[in-house]
Hints:
It is a single chain. By secondary structure, the protein is an all-alpha fold. Among the domains are: 2-20 and 132-218; 26-122, Cytochrome c-like domain (Cytochrome Bc1 Complex, Chain D, domain 2); 421-464, no CATH class. The chain has helices at residues 2-19, 26-36, 57-61, 66-74, 76-82, 85-94, 107-122, 133-175, 185-189, 192-207, 212-218, 233-239, 244-247, 262-269, 283-290, 308-324, 334-351, 379-385, 390-394, 411-420, 435-443, 459-462; strands at residues 292-293, 298-299. The chain has a two-stranded antiparallel sheet with strand order 1-2. The longest helix is centred in the first third of the chain and has 43 residues, at 133-175. One heme C (HEC) binds next to helix 18, helix 19, helix 20 and helix 22.
Amino acid sequence: xxLKRICWVFSFVFLAxxxxxxxxxxxxxxxxxxxxCAACHAxxxxxxxxxxxxxxxDDRWAAxxxxxxxxWIRNSQAMVASGHPRAVELWNQxxxxxxxxxxxxxxxxxxxIVLYINDAxxxxxxxxVTPEASADGTESSGNMWLFASLxxxxxxxxxxLMRIIDNLGNITRVQAGEVPVQRTFFQVLTTKGSIxxxxxxxxxxxxxxxxxxxxxMGRSQNYQPDxxxxxxxxxxxxxxxIDCQYCHDSARRSKHSLIxxxxxCMNCHAAVKKGTQTGTSEITKIFASxxxxxxxxxxxxxxxGWSEQQIxxxxxxxIGQEYMSANSLAAMNDAGRSAVETQWEGVLKALxxxxxxxxxxxxxxxxxxxxxxxxxxxxxxHVAIGQIACQKCHGTVEEMEIVYQxxxxxxxxxxxxxxxxxxxxxxxxxxxxYARYHExxxxxxxxxxxxxxxxxxxxxxxxx
Length: 464
Ligand code: HEC
Ligand code: HEC
Ligand code: HEC
Ligand code: HEC
Ligand code: HEC
Ligand code: HEC
């Protein structure tokens, strides 16, 4: 019986752990807002206080990846420093009052707050709401399969344990002169306990709305998603020897190593308008995202106000020149026209935002690396202070046509390096505070100081 209990307990714990991260709710949002935001943002969401009215927030951030809004709330000043257009615009309006940083808020908690903001702004009757249910819908069917297979594995495991229990039982039965029993898979499956468990498990699994966790399971070592633009590190960082930090310049200054915006690409691509391999098809995406007219060689002043038709006309003409040296699409033959259409489809697919139909705005690169919310990792600490090369953690990115996740990013990976790596103790001001180690080093009692020695194995250093 003990085995059976253990088996139940494990299954429960496992399933319960899947459900811990509850979906965002207005209720949670209200509490978080009251505790953290209400000091500066009006509760009716319509008045300006120390901070601006938050009603209509979603619309103002719709042109950017959702992660930008999260980043803003976690550390608005870092975003201003990174030159994010919305952040800079806000700062120009509201300086010199900076908003507080809320590094501890998870994505789900921020979604809760946004739910509450939208709810309070429209003052609709309250109730639990599923955010962007449709946006998640496409992903969730794949995850359902994942959960279904997990359930199956659990069922098989339970069955195997039942067999062991039966066999143990049979030993005593035989000793007592009774007839041994041998239950089939079906019999085991139809015991009351199993049915109750199955019902419980199914309710839990299918009621489990935040597919977030499962999405994350897919993002692991060697993860190599397709990107909206065929951007090659091999070509840029390898063949053209562009320094990593030319594009990822926040790596040595801040927690995140940001992906460069189209304006960084334009430093070169205002001149390099065609690639040897992909012609205009990929670089046109940069132009269409930022509003650069490659024919007239200038930025389009009111690009934000352009319609899809206007945008299509300009860039199809540009793509068309590449194909036919014809100045009007009408003067082109069918093959040329269809080539232009295909390429334009590609641009739309890469840039057009499903939620608002806009082409303008930042390129939405697919994130490759993603630690869970409870883990804290800081680039500046490793790149600037620890002086670790990007390649040590990310592999030889300069040889990668498409970037993939080179390291496991598991806890063991972090810990191992902290155990092994010596901190560059002597020539760094930052370590002056560790006076004792300095004395020990001088006295020869100690030959080296590892990251572990300076607290790199303490749970709270890496966990919120
Ligand atoms: C110390 C005052 C203060 C607190 C506390 C504060 N904010 Fe702000 N917030 C501001 C200011 C000021 C701005 C304007 C931009 C700036 O100064 O950088 C702002 C701007 C914003 C914006 C951008 C609004 C827009 O229209 O795009 C969002 C979103 C936001 N705050 C959300 C929050 C949330 C969520 C919280 C609580 C977790 C919070 N703020 C707490 C002061 C604050
Ligand atoms: C010309 C600009 C440019 C240069 C130079 C560059 N990168 Fe990138 N990097 C990008 C862009 C754009 C992306 C996003 C698209 C992608 O993932 O390929 C990116 C993505 C990445 C990612 C994956 C980020 C994620 O989503 O998790 C890593 C890691 C990375 N770069 C490391 C490097 C390293 C290391 C170097 C130097 C060897 C380097 N990059 C040089 C532009 C650049
Ligand atoms: C420091 C200069 C520089 C920067 C910054 C830069 N590129 Fe490039 N890029 C080049 C050069 C040089 C080429 C090579 C053109 C060729 O193929 O001959 C190129 C080629 C390309 C190509 C075409 C590849 C082919 O062979 O068809 C694409 C697509 C591209 N870059 C995307 C980007 C993106 C996206 C960014 C910004 C994240 C970016 N580049 C930033 C210099 C740069
Ligand atoms: C000590 C290991 C380590 C070093 C060194 C390192 N990275 Fe990272 N990098 C990571 C981890 C871990 C993540 C995932 C962070 C997360 O999800 O919060 C990451 C994420 C990224 C991302 C995705 C955006 C982000 O910050 O989440 C980019 C881009 C990137 N690294 C580029 C670089 C570049 C460029 C360098 C060198 C200047 C570098 N990294 C050095 C470990 C490292
Ligand atoms: C390639 C080696 C390496 C890897 C991998 C690595 N680190 Fe580090 N880490 C260092 C070094 C070196 C330092 C020392 C820099 C310093 O003194 O701040 C450091 C320091 C830290 C610190 C500050 C410790 C303190 O006491 O101030 C934290 C937090 C941290 N790392 C988190 C992580 C996390 C989380 C991961 C995994 C996602 C990770 N590191 C992976 C080498 C590494
Ligand atoms: C050097 C950084 C670092 C230190 C120190 C650290 N952790 Fe972690 N921990 C991580 C990272 C990164 C992850 C996420 C791993 C993943 O995604 O698989 C993690 C994951 C976890 C998890 C979740 C299990 C999982 O695999 O996702 C638990 C629980 C945990 N850590 C507990 C602890 C405890 C307890 C300590 C102190 C004894 C500790 N950690 C110290 C970096 C660290």
